[in-house]
Specification:
The structure is a single chain. The chain is α/β, with parallel strands linked by helices. The chain has a domain at 116-177 and 255-342: D-Amino Acid Oxidase, Chain A, domain 2 (2-Layer Sandwich), CATH 3.30.9. Helices cover 29% and strands 26% of the residues. The protein has helices at residues 6-14, 42-55, 87-101, 103-107, 125-141, 150-156, 183-196, 240-247, 309-322, 371-384, 396-400, and strands at residues 32-38, 60-63, 79-80, 118-122, 146-148, 171-175, 179-180, 200-202, 207-213, 216-222, 225-234, 253-265, 273-276, 281-285, 290-297, 331-342, 348-351, 357-361. Strands 1, 2, 8, 9, 10, 11, 17 and 18 form an eight-stranded mixed beta sheet that branches. Strands 5-6-4-13-14-15-12-16 form an eight-stranded mixed beta sheet, with helices on both faces. Helix 3 (87-101) packs across helix 10. The radius of gyration is 21 Å and the shape is globular. The relative contact order is 0.19. The structure holds flavin-adenine dinucleotide (FAD) and pyrrole-2-carboxylate. One of its GO terms (molecular function) is sarcosine oxidase activity. InterPro entries: FAD-dep_OxRdtase, FAD/NAD-bd_sf, Rhodanese-like_dom, SoxB. Residues 36-79 form the Rhodanese domain.
Amino acid sequence: MKRYSAFAVAREALRHHLGWERAWRSPEPQKRYDAIIVGAGGHGLATAYWLGKNHGIRNVAVLEKGWLGGGNTGRNTTIIRSNYLQDPSAAIYEKARSLYETMSQDLNYNVMFSPRGVLMLAQTHHEVRGYRRTAQANALQGVETEFVGPERVKELCPIINLSGPRYPVLGALWQPRGGTARHDAVAWGYARACSDMGMDIIQKCEVTGIRREGGRVVGVDTMRGAIGCDRLGIVVAGHSGALADMAGFRLPIESVALQALVSEPIKPCMDVVVMANTVHGYMSQSDKGEMVIGGGADGYNNYTQRGSFHHVEETVRALCETFPMISRLKMLRWWGGIVDMTGDRSPIISRTPVEGVYINCGWGTGGFKAIPGSGWAMAELMAKGTSPLADPFSLTRFREGRFIDESVAAGVAH
Ligand code: FAD
Ligand code: PYC
């Protein structure tokens, strides 16, 4: 892999950009691999990356039914934060956030990580108490957050309306090193690094069956033929239930649509991320100037990559009362992704009832921020059979009643 650098950009500018090589190879599938990862979203690619980088397992294929990064990884609003309440969550999300800090250098790929700070507004007394409690938990967990008052909120985000018609802004949980990153670049950067390690990323290769012998995995059936493997990682977000079905076990997961929209680009007006979970909407400004907006998840299960209309209306209403200046903006694009929700709103990173099959799913509405840490933990689990970051998130927690309840604690109202 030729390294990207300022020198390379200048050199290619002088020769009409004819010297760039493909960022990743497009190989034909081999007959077998030591490990196969199903799903070339951020979590699948990061798993493959850390398998190679930390554990020397490089005879790996990542199989993707569409195009890499075309699932939720390329559809989210890119908010990165680690201000969770429960210890296992704070540990994995903070690991991920800290890996984002150096990701561009590690991958030699600009993922545009922007630690601009995240404000989670407190708009009821209940939320004030909840976020104060989270700030104290975060202090013990080594996660840098603080509860700030309304004056500081206004200072950090001048376009905010502190006295909305329904709920006033009473303060906020502030994470100064939270922020955003360019979602496609995260997938592309990992894909390039994996390909450089000799791994095969095979797009348009849907997995249609999982082959087992004597209770252990021996390979997969795909649209491009059967492929053998010793270890299989299932990392397919909203399609996890379907893949688990192929392997012969069930997951406590529901798939629902979550949607987002972006406005026409405008001049820089907001340099922090704001989440308003009581009125229900969140917003940041992209480097292009578009206002990136998201709202709630659909209240019914489905596999459509769009959302229902009333949610857009509700989200836009919430954001217009929080940021009155956006009321005359035109919206340019609107889309949805299928998110995989568990009962306790925490992920599953786990061995499964089938020997050699591992699953990483359940990130629901909040897994973009977790990509590097999740890949790190899943790779460790697949390589060693155990991982301090992953073990609390095992499937057995549902049977044992060891829930990691982030359904209210995470402060995200969906
Ligand atoms: P995906 O990126 O969906 O990748 C899974 C891949 O598996 C897909 O590419 C799919 O095609 C492939 N696949 C499925 N079935 C098969 C098969 N049979 N064979 C082969 N391949 C298969 N998170 C945040 O942290 N911050 C946010 O601001 C945020 N906003 C969001 C906004 C929206 C609108 C949505 C939809 C999600 C948001 N999320 C956010 C959540 C985040 O996007 C996801 O948790 C995360 O991207 C999941 O990544 P993944 O790699 O697990 O899944
Ligand atoms: O988890 O921070 C989050 C989030 C924001 C929007 C969707 N999920």
